[in-house]
Write a structure and sequence with these properties.
The chain has nine helices and two strands. With 178 residues, the chain is mainly alpha-helical. The chain folds into two domains: 97 residues, EF-hand (Recoverin, domain 1), CATH 1.10.238; 40 residues, no CATH class. It has a two-stranded antiparallel ribbon with strand order 1-2. Helix 1 crosses helix 2 and helix 1 packs across helix 5. The longest helix is centred in the N-terminal third of the chain and has 19 residues. It is elongated and about 110 Å long. The model has no long low-confidence stretch (mean pLDDT 79).
Length: 178
């Protein structure tokens, strides 16, 4: 039975990884329904025949506290016991639970189907700063690197002359001639 307790710690590690998946504020002590369904899907507990997504949702609703939206690891273990009986028909409850834990151990949330960065010619063309014209061109130096604030904002002229005055800096020359 010692190996059963060792695997329980590994199952708890997987539970923690799935519990924090996609939620920056999650502590890993509790798991929401979405991540529970993801764990069941990614670990192949859902097989489409014996266990479906509907079964997983029903079991989740059954083990959680009525007002709560999350389950603890203890409630998770209850849910796994129920799903094990559905998933592995035949062996004893303990054996089917161990088989189910075998599916979970060492697993992490997969990011299958996550949107990849587009590598299209159109995107390359649109992001090539050397082809920019007009005021946008001034925001980048020759190498295509952005100039930051200097390229983005009009820097005010605090010389004392009126803006766009073409003879700025010529006052001293005019005074000397007179």
């Amino acid at each position: 039975m010692a190996e059963g307790s060792a695997s329980l710690a590994e199952v708890q590690a997987s539970f923690h990884r799935f519990a924090v998946h996609g939620d920056t504020k999650a502590t890993g002590k509790e798991m929401n329904g979405k991540n529970f369904a993801k764990l069941c899907k990614d670990c192949h507990i859902i097989d489409g025949k014996n266990v479906t997504t509907t079964d997983v949702d029903i079991v989740f609703s059954k083990v959680k506290v009525k007002s709560a939206r999350v389950i603890t690891f203890e409630q998770f273990a209850q849910a796994m016991a129920e799903l094990a009986a559905k998933r592995f028909k035949g062996p004893s409850k303990e054996e089917s639970l161990q088989q189910l834990y075998g599916l979970i151990i060492g697993k992490e949330p997969t990011n299958a189907g996550v949107t990849k960065v587009a590598k299209a010619a159109a995107v390359d063309r649109l992001t090539d700063a050397s082809k920019y014209t007009g005021s946008h061109k001034e925001r980048f130096d020759e190498s295509g690197k952005g100039k930051g604030k200097a390229g983005r904002e009009e820097i005010p002229d605090t010389s004392g002359y009126v803006s766009a005055y073409k003879g700025s800096g010529t006052y001293d020359d005019k005074v000397k001639q007179a």
